Amino acid sequence: MTVLVVGYDGTDGAVAALDEALVLAGELDATVHLVFAFAAPRLGGELRDLDEAIAERGHTVLERGKHHAAAKGAEVTTGFLKADPAEGLIAAAQEQDARYIVVGSYGERPLKSALVGSTPTRLLHLSDRPVLVVRAPD
Protein backbone atom coordinates (compact mmCIF):
# COMPACT_ATOMS: atom_id res chain seq x y z
CA MET A 1 0.00 0.00 0.00
CA THR A 2 1.20 3.52 -0.79
CA VAL A 3 1.93 5.74 2.22
CA LEU A 4 2.22 9.51 2.43
CA VAL A 5 4.15 10.90 5.40
CA VAL A 6 2.91 14.32 6.52
CA GLY A 7 4.87 16.61 8.81
CA TYR A 8 2.25 17.83 11.25
CA ASP A 9 2.63 20.44 13.98
CA GLY A 10 -0.89 21.86 14.02
CA THR A 11 -0.03 25.13 12.26
CA ASP A 12 -2.01 26.47 9.31
CA GLY A 13 0.70 25.18 6.99
CA ALA A 14 0.48 21.70 8.51
CA VAL A 15 -3.31 21.65 8.17
CA ALA A 16 -2.98 22.70 4.50
CA ALA A 17 -0.41 19.90 4.01
CA LEU A 18 -2.74 17.37 5.64
CA ASP A 19 -5.68 18.47 3.51
CA GLU A 20 -3.62 18.15 0.33
CA ALA A 21 -2.27 14.77 1.44
CA LEU A 22 -5.82 13.52 2.07
CA VAL A 23 -6.83 14.51 -1.48
CA LEU A 24 -3.71 12.89 -2.92
CA ALA A 25 -4.24 9.78 -0.79
CA GLY A 26 -7.73 9.43 -2.21
CA GLU A 27 -6.40 9.67 -5.76
CA LEU A 28 -3.58 7.18 -5.11
CA ASP A 29 -5.52 4.85 -2.81
CA ALA A 30 -2.87 5.61 -0.20
CA THR A 31 -2.73 5.94 3.56
CA VAL A 32 -1.57 9.01 5.47
CA HIS A 33 0.90 8.88 8.35
CA LEU A 34 1.11 12.09 10.42
CA VAL A 35 4.45 12.77 12.10
CA PHE A 36 5.30 15.28 14.82
CA ALA A 37 9.08 15.55 15.20
CA PHE A 38 11.07 17.90 17.38
CA ALA A 39 14.67 18.16 18.43
CA ALA A 40 14.89 17.60 22.18
CA PRO A 41 17.00 20.08 24.13
CA ARG A 42 20.54 18.78 24.58
CA LEU A 43 20.88 20.09 28.11
CA GLY A 44 19.27 18.54 31.19
CA GLY A 45 17.80 20.15 34.28
CA GLU A 46 15.02 22.63 33.82
CA LEU A 47 14.92 21.99 30.08
CA ARG A 48 13.49 18.55 30.83
CA ASP A 49 10.21 20.32 31.69
CA LEU A 50 10.28 22.04 28.31
CA ASP A 51 10.97 18.71 26.62
CA GLU A 52 7.98 17.14 28.39
CA ALA A 53 5.72 20.10 27.53
CA ILE A 54 6.68 19.86 23.85
CA ALA A 55 6.07 16.10 23.88
CA GLU A 56 2.64 16.61 25.44
CA ARG A 57 1.84 19.28 22.87
CA GLY A 58 2.97 16.98 20.07
CA HIS A 59 0.65 14.17 21.13
CA THR A 60 -2.24 16.63 21.45
CA VAL A 61 -1.53 18.05 17.98
CA LEU A 62 -1.44 14.57 16.46
CA GLU A 63 -4.81 13.74 18.03
CA ARG A 64 -6.27 16.93 16.56
CA GLY A 65 -4.86 15.93 13.18
CA LYS A 66 -6.55 12.53 13.46
CA HIS A 67 -9.87 14.23 14.27
CA HIS A 68 -9.42 16.68 11.38
CA ALA A 69 -8.88 13.76 8.98
CA ALA A 70 -11.82 11.82 10.46
CA ALA A 71 -14.09 14.83 9.89
CA LYS A 72 -13.13 14.53 6.21
CA GLY A 73 -13.90 10.82 6.22
CA ALA A 74 -10.30 9.58 6.38
CA GLU A 75 -8.27 7.61 8.87
CA VAL A 76 -4.63 8.40 9.52
CA THR A 77 -1.87 6.87 11.58
CA THR A 78 0.49 8.93 13.70
CA GLY A 79 4.09 8.96 14.79
CA PHE A 80 5.93 11.01 17.39
CA LEU A 81 9.70 11.43 17.10
CA LYS A 82 12.33 13.17 19.19
CA ALA A 83 14.47 14.16 16.24
CA ASP A 84 15.26 17.13 14.08
CA PRO A 85 12.04 17.65 12.09
CA ALA A 86 13.57 17.14 8.65
CA GLU A 87 15.64 14.15 9.74
CA GLY A 88 12.67 12.72 11.65
CA LEU A 89 10.39 12.98 8.63
CA ILE A 90 12.99 11.30 6.45
CA ALA A 91 13.36 8.49 9.00
CA ALA A 92 9.58 8.08 9.21
CA ALA A 93 9.32 8.00 5.41
CA GLN A 94 11.98 5.27 5.28
CA GLU A 95 10.28 3.29 8.04
CA GLN A 96 6.88 3.57 6.33
CA ASP A 97 8.36 3.13 2.83
CA ALA A 98 6.49 6.32 1.95
CA ARG A 99 6.03 7.45 -1.61
CA TYR A 100 6.01 11.16 -0.67
CA ILE A 101 6.76 13.45 2.24
CA VAL A 102 4.22 16.27 2.50
CA VAL A 103 4.87 19.44 4.53
CA GLY A 104 3.42 22.90 4.88
CA SER A 105 5.22 26.17 4.28
CA TYR A 106 4.60 29.82 4.93
CA GLY A 107 6.37 30.83 1.72
CA GLU A 108 9.48 32.25 3.36
CA ARG A 109 11.86 34.11 1.13
CA PRO A 110 14.72 31.90 -0.12
CA LEU A 111 17.45 33.75 1.80
CA LYS A 112 15.58 33.61 5.09
CA SER A 113 14.76 29.97 4.50
CA ALA A 114 18.41 29.17 3.82
CA LEU A 115 19.66 31.11 6.83
CA VAL A 116 17.05 29.89 9.30
CA GLY A 117 17.02 26.37 7.88
CA SER A 118 13.33 25.73 7.35
CA THR A 119 12.14 22.13 7.39
CA PRO A 120 10.83 22.20 3.78
CA THR A 121 14.17 23.54 2.52
CA ARG A 122 16.13 20.93 4.46
CA LEU A 123 13.86 18.16 3.19
CA LEU A 124 14.35 19.25 -0.41
CA HIS A 125 18.12 18.98 0.09
CA LEU A 126 18.25 15.80 2.20
CA SER A 127 15.40 13.55 1.12
CA ASP A 128 15.80 10.91 -1.56
CA ARG A 129 11.99 10.75 -1.80
CA PRO A 130 9.76 13.33 -3.49
CA VAL A 131 8.74 16.18 -1.19
CA LEU A 132 5.48 18.04 -1.68
CA VAL A 133 5.50 21.50 -0.09
CA VAL A 134 2.04 22.98 0.41
CA ARG A 135 1.75 26.72 0.96
CA ALA A 136 -0.28 27.81 3.98
CA PRO A 137 -3.28 29.98 3.16
CA ASP A 138 -2.64 33.72 3.39
From TrEMBL:
It holds the Pfam family Usp. CDD domains: USP-like. InterPro entries: Rossmann-like_a/b/a_fold, Universal_stress_UspA, UspA. Residues 4-135 form the UspA domain. Gene3D superfamilies: HUPs (3.40.50.620). It comes from the Bacteria. Belongs to the universal stress protein A family. This is UspA domain-containing protein.
